[in-house]
Amino acid sequence: MANKDLRDWIASVEKTGELKVIKGAETKEEIGGFVDIYMRKMGQPAVMFDEIPGYPKGHRVVANILTSVPRINLALGLPPETSEMELTQWWRRYFKDAPSHPTKAVNGGPLLDNVLEGPNVNIQKIPTPVWHELDGGPFIGTACLVVMKDPDSGWVNYGTYRVQSHEPNVASVMMSPGKHGLVIMRKYHERGQKCPVAVIAGMHPSMVMLGGIEIPYGKNELEAAGGILGEPVEVINMPKTGLPVPANCEIAFEGFIGPDDKIKEGPLGEWTGYYASGSDLEPAIRIETLMYRDNPILMGAIPAVPPNDNTFYFGAYRAGAIWNQLEAAGIPEVKGVWTHQAGGSRFMMVVSIKTLYGGHSKQAAMVAAHCHAGAYNNRWTIVVDDDIDPTNFDDVVWAMCTRCDPRDQVDIIDGGWSSALDPMCYDTQDDRRNSRVIIDACIPFRRKKTFPKVARSSRALDDRMRAKWAKDLPKGF
Ligand SMILES: Cc1cc2nc3c(=O)[nH]c(=O)nc-3n(C[C@H](O)[C@H](O)[C@H](O)COP(=O)(O)O)c2cc1C
Asked: Residue 195 pairs with which residues in a beta bridge?
């Protein structure tokens, strides 16, 4: 039986009432304009564009995909009503045993509906939006997977790196330093060889979730996706490069990146909400084969002023990783972790703990702000007591307003791990740093017994109310 694919996920999203279909919007600015507005608040529906001027009816674009917790849950095979903190716990367990299945090679699949080779290749047959007004052009790869094979070990890496569409048979890819794709590409170039590459644009969203997170060096993201789907991912090998792509993905193309073959790329609005890293020369992909399903669906996950589709799904994943690393560092009684969507799931994090001793909360803050999962591009770390839900910012701000004495509960730490994407980073190109704040918004340990009582119903009363009055109470209470 074929794996679940993008179309299955879209059908499940539609069933939960989280899909909006828009007909007639064009690619130059209107699709991007729609997506920008839908992304400004999390929990808006995913948007599917059809009847796009200049393209056949049925050639579609879907975007604003992973900007609601229910849609993330559906991508991971969880019940849609799973809460943020349950989702965070799911990621914590995932890190511990990371299930996987080897991929399974098959002879055919829907991807072969349309195969264009050599002079017939034309990626511009796929409706590809200019996502923001100041972008350098249309980007076919945002929620995509860039496929490369390590020439030494044969390991196949699937990484999510942006891919710009330039000409019918030319695209470019932007991989930041340290990304696995860049490491692999350089191995070919150092040998004077062209690097074989494939790009997948439109697949089950669990795959792009894995392509966009730090799956360890040497691990295959489609094998990891098999672990989430509960079965091997069926793949077909692209004809020129032999690179394996899901047999039921929507669109895939392959080609080669020559040594020193670069093209002016970008800019593309970034997940921090700015164009901070601009435009530069980046590797050009000379495309030899394009394949797509009948009525293909291009999938987009667009970076922009947060909250955005590039980073929202990271929230639970990153929170789970930080929680595990806090525990590994010996911090007891961590009760929750969240990274706020308005900080692109990196700049602002909240840790909730049951404080056991003086200094416990500050210790937790220091570790969270600098552990591996939390350190990069962080700016605000807030620690709250265990009666505060870290996903509820009214509660978090209330704790900051009423439990924090800035004289000794706020610290500025200098010299943190930053990047060019952070508009407030300082220092030079190879040594980007930022300063960051830790806010201890826990009731000071010495005052725990004497602190004023909280004027809110107890959990026990909430439970009694829920048991007796559920249908008269607001949803989600
Ligand atoms: C939607 C989306 C777009 C991304 N775009 C880029 C990009 O253009 N360049 C880049 O280096 N990383 C980008 N990332 C981050 C990488 O995908 C992420 O760091 C991932 O771990 C890289 O895979 P790798 O570890 O196999 O290199 C993006 C992530 C997402 C979710």
From this structure: 257
Q: What is the pLDDT along the chain (477 residues), one digit of tens a residue?
A: 689 999 999 999 999 999 999 999 999 999 999 999 999 999 999 999 999 999 999 999 999 999 999 999 999 999 999 999 999 999 999 988 889 999 999 999 999 999 999 999 999 999 999 999 999 999 999 999 999 999 999 999 999 999 999 999 999 999 988 899 999 999 999 999 999 999 999 999 999 999 999 888 999 999 999 999 999 999 999 999 999 999 999 999 999 999 999 999 999 999 999 998 889 999 999 999 999 999 999 999 999 999 999 999 999 999 999 999 999 999 999 999 999 999 999 999 999 999 999 999 999 999 999 999 999 999 999 999 999 999 999 999 999 999 999 999 999 999 999 988 899 998 877 789 999 999 999 999 999 999 999 999 999 999 999 999 999 999 877
**Which protein residue has the closest C-alpha to ligand 1 atom 17?**
212
Together in a domain, 194 and 329: no
For residue 303, the tally of other CB atoms under 10 A from its CB is 23
Asked if residue 306 is part of any domain, the answer here is: no
Domain count, the chain: 2
How many angstroms separate the alpha carbon of residue 385 from the centre of ligand 1? Answer: 34
Helices then strands (H, E): number in the chain? Answer: 13, 22
Q: Is the CB of 318 under 6 A from ligand 1?
A: no
Do 281 and 137 lie in a common domain?
yes
Query: Is the residue at 308 inside a domain?
Result: no
Assess if residue 43 is contained within a domain.
yes
- How many whole angstroms from 405 Cα to the centroid of ligand 1? 39
**Greatest Cα pair distance in the chain:** 78
Q: Which two tokens stand for residue 293?
A: 């399903």
Distance CA 142, CA 60 (A): 15
Whether 179 lines ligand 1, by a CB cut-off of 6 Å, is yes
Same domain, 291 and 397: no
Cis preceding linkage at 267, omega within 30? yes
182: domain range?
6-299
Report the predicted TM-score, pTM, of the whole model to 2 decimal places: 0.95
Check whether residue 21 and residue 121 sit in a common domain: yes
Q: In angstroms, what is the span from residue 376 Cα to ligand 1's centroid?
A: 14
In contact, 245 and 198? CB cutoff 8 Å: yes
Q: Tell whether 319 and 214 lie within a shared domain.
A: no
Mutate to test the pocket of ligand 1, among 146, 179, 311 (most ligand atoms within 8 A of CB): 179
- Whole-number Cα distances in Å, 314 to 169, 223, 376, 387: 33, 20, 13, 24
**Ligand 1 proximity of 142 Cβ (cutoff 6 Å):** yes
Q: What is the CATH number of the domain that holds 335?
A: 3.40.1670.10
Tell the residue nearest (CA) to atom 4 of ligand 1. 161
Q: Is 176 in the pocket of ligand 1 (CB under 6 A)?
A: yes
Q: Return the SS3 of 454.
A: coil
Residue 313 CA, closest ligand 1 atom number: 31
Domain end position, chosen among 299, 331, 366: 299
